[in-house]
Amino acid sequence: MILQIKVNHYKANGRVNVDSETLFRQFGEIETKVEKLIQICGSQQTANLELHHKITQLEEELRAANETVKRHAEEKALIRSRVDTLLARLEEMNP
């Protein structure tokens, strides 16, 4: 944008030759590409931040699920132990 204003100024004053016009055009193209890259970088940073938040959320969900699995395993072991104790007592009563 700024480059285009300068090119127009030089053209108006007759100070731009063919080589300069080509050079200014190339700089203009570079400027446009750099602006697009800056926009892409910004959107990538936003996407990256969203992914980091998602990772944190999923890690918390995984931690909660692991705790639930552990608690269920402990409950299962307790129930199995109580059943084994009851079966042993029944066997003692009926030799």
Tell me briefly what this model is.
By secondary structure, the protein is mainly alpha-helical. It contains 2 helices and no strands.
**Care to count the β-strands?**
0
Report the end-to-end length measured between terminal Cα atoms: 98 Å
Radius of gyration: 36 Å
Number of helices: 2
Helical proportion, percent range:
over 70%
H/E element order: HH
Q: Which shape, going by the Cα principal axes? A: rod-shaped
Indicate the structural class: mainly alpha
Low-confidence stretches: none
Number of domains: 1
Overview of this structure, please?
With about 100 residues, the chain is an all-alpha fold. The protein has one domain. The chain is rod-shaped, with a radius of gyration of 36 Å. The termini are far apart. The mean pLDDT is about 85.
Question: How are the secondary structure elements laid out?
Answer:
Elements: H1 2-12, H2 18-93
Question: What key attributes describe this structure?
Answer:
mainly alpha; 95 residues; 0% strand; rod-shaped; single chain
